[in-house]
Amino acid sequence: MSNSPDFTEDQREYLQEICNIGMGQAGASLSVLFEQYVTLSVPSIEVISAENATESLRRLIPAEQISAVRQGFYTHVTDPNFCGESITIFSGTSFEELAQLIAFEEELTAELEQELLLEISNIINGACLSGIAEQLLERFFHTPPSVIGQNIAVEDLLQTDQLQWDHALSIKIKYSVEKQSFECDLLLLMPDFAVKYLQEVLNKLLDEL
Amino acid sequence: MTNKFPYAEDVVDCIDNGVFVVDKNFKVHLWNDFMSIHSRFSADQIIGLKLFECFPELPQKWFERKVKSIYLLKNQSYTSWEQRPYLFKFPHGRSVTGGVEHMYQNCCFTPIFDLDNNVECVCVTIKNVTDLAIKAKQLKDAVVQLEHISSIDGLTQLYNRAHWEQRFKTEVERVKRYKSKVSLIMFDMDHFKKINDQYGHLAGDKVLKQTAERCLNLFRSVDVIGRYGGEEFCIFLPETDITNTGLVAEKLRHIIADTPVNFKSKEIFISASIGFTCSSEKENNYETLIKEADDALYIAKNNGRNQCINFLDSTSDD
Amino acid sequence: MIPSIMICDDSNIARKQLKKVLPEPWKESVKLAQNGEEALLNLRAEHFDILFLDLTMPVLDGFDVLTTMKSEKIQVKTIVISADIQVEAKNRVEAAGALDFIKKPVSAEALTAVLTKHNLI
After folding, report:
1. B61–A103: do the CB atoms touch at under 8 Å?
2. CB-based contacts of B250: which residues, under 8 Å, 6+ apart?
């Protein structure tokens, strides 16, 4: 299937609004957990193609070296369903700052640094997706998070020669906690075969408006 | 409400993972057979008690924080043996074949909701992944061993230190036997740590790779090039006297310093400190020759870098 | 008496969602603005009884609108409608002169409660 999933203007706007709201809720939960004000960027939504995946990623994440964690999400396993992967990207925040963020008191070894990345990713991702899921009247299940790599290049995020989709919906959200100088990007990716169902749900919601 | 299966609790006891439930005060409400078998506590003994009273060795603060985030965010949380080998120090099942000290565990923390969709309690599952962990460790060890027996340095594709030293040792013995000669050049990249700090490790890697390529293009096929250390390289040149070695060393200095390395549209300027020496009738012990070249390199570093120092010259200045 | 209402939000969907839960008779006289700048232009031109204001908008955001209104002494009862529902956001907004704060998506109940609280209904 090489047709790019086309969103109508209304669908796009509705999706944008859903992401805004979902993000707002996530920010509220996170600010209570971190005990700090959390700043959220407006989510940027676009469709990327497998052909240009690397260029798109470089544009979305302009950092030279990143650490990244992936986590799968899905509604039901059978059709019709949503599924996708979220990638949490850290560039530049030190581990000491990350540890402070969640009052992590153990001394940092290489393994515990990874655990920090995984824990914070799980928290941010879970909060954001459950915010979005609530607007879509769905419930997301997750796979455990795993580290894609530390100090890797953006190109290494995807196995570009083994992608099983032609197009994917990408939603990028930037989180930052100023006082902690913490910043990370959350990239939600949904392959084309899952996007169809999303569009159906959006249409239903638009009809009720 | 569907009729609940009357043996649900027995099923929980059949599960080959640890399953237990705590509330927000860490009082235990469920404790399955797996947990009973592996710990000193049966369900009857522990239900109603606080988890940390029975297991004081548990990382309490970490645990509390994890559970707190679940109550707040209503999502699942995980741990993996790769970062945290175990939550509970349980014995593994390999009491005879051994190989490990304890059970390796993957854990999952799941919220249980009440009718108002608030978190009532948290269910923790403990999965025994000891076999997986052991296999993964064996694989890791095998890779390390493999790197050791291979003769090539992965990054630069030059000979690794162990192999190069062996070759040099053999060459020096040949020189002794046939009363021949061999020269040795050793060089170290200047300000390499700064390059890594400023441009990142990927840039540092590219610098090393390019330097290696430039060396391969410069030297003859009989010359043997190796990566001696992190940013240190070594070349031995059979049948070459000190004068010609000096000329080559100077050429080497130029091909490194004259052209920067391009990294993501940035130009990284590089240079090297170079030391060289030659075998003689008196001195043909391979370790001593390495030390001589290294000493000369050290002088080059201290004299301002980006230069070549001949060990034999440096010692004759008395 | 039907109050004159302005809804300021860059999202067409958000404007529609809010309009949907307004009291029925109010729906007739609602003016829409797409960003802070448009809202201010309208506010300077005519009087409004109630302004529903989003926070995150391009060009001029909700906070800037509130500050400008204060400095230009434009007095309109402003209710902020926002996805950002952290306590600090609420406090900042009320300090800047807003009457109250409702989280998105706005339910009819939440709106009625706020309007009643401030005797707007």
Report:
1. yes
2. B308
